[in-house]
Write a structure and sequence with these properties.
- With 149 residues, this protein is mostly helical.
- The chain contains 3 helices and no strands.
- It has helices at 3-39, 45-100, 103-115.
- The protein starts with a helix and ends in a 34-residue tail after the last helix.
């Protein structure tokens, strides 16, 4: 994986963690705000209790996010593996097609690529596939037999 992409992903993850933590803690503290106001007139024990709740909430958020990040990393690793396999397969297919194509077909393809046209937009005859000697090749019929009305 590209280290620059990894750094960007980590920065995004940290940013999301901060935003999530802030919103989560705001909601937790919002529910506890009535008891916080009452306890402000008491001793410093309420401040310690609030600090403990905040620390517990942060630990909970951290553990949940670390678990989610690990799961996402595993999913992304699997997707990367599948994409590498697919890319290898397509490269092999591309090389095979290049080897089977005639020089005229390659020139026509290069011309289409240079003009910005898609090779699939023009009607082209099918590429002949070599058939080993002594075997017969059955092609599907594209013409209807009989008379038309």
């Amino acid at each position: 994986m590209n280290s620059q992409c990894y750094t960007v992903a980590m920065d995004l993850g940290v940013c999301q963690l901060r935003n999530f933590s802030i919103s989560f803690l705001s909601s937790v503290l919002g529910k506890e705000s009535a008891s916080v106001r009452v306890d402000n007139s008491s001793s410093g024990a309420s401040v310690v209790a609030i600090d403990n709740k905040i620390e517990q909430a942060m630990d909970l958020v951290k553990s949940h996010l670390m678990y989610a990040v690990r799961e996402e990393v595993e999913v992304l690793k699997e997707q990367i593996k599948e994409l590498i396999e697919r890319n290898t397969q397509l490269e092999q297919e591309n090389n095979l097609l290049k080897n089977l194509a005639s020089p005229e077909q390659m020139a026509q393809f290069q011309a289409q690529v240079q003009t910005g046209g898609s090779p699939t937009t023009t009607a082209q005859p099918p590429v002949p596939v070599p058939v080993p000697a002594g075997t017969t090749q059955v092609l599907p019929s594209t013409q209807s037999s009989g008379t038309s009305a």
